Model the fold of this input.
Amino acid sequence: MSKKLEDERMRMEMVWIEKLVPEDHLVRKLDRSSDKGRPSIEPAK
Done:
């Protein structure tokens, strides 16, 4: 394997989900409307 090809395969790219998903996408709307931090079912006692 050539050194150049090996270097290309080892390269990393940083990606943020905020940059990939448009502001008006359904996933963002669902995320904003969800109740974060609250369990979806009542915990057992």
In short: Residues 3-10 form the longest helix (8 residues). The chain is about 45% helix and 0% strand. Residues 1 and 7 are 10 Å apart (CA to CA).
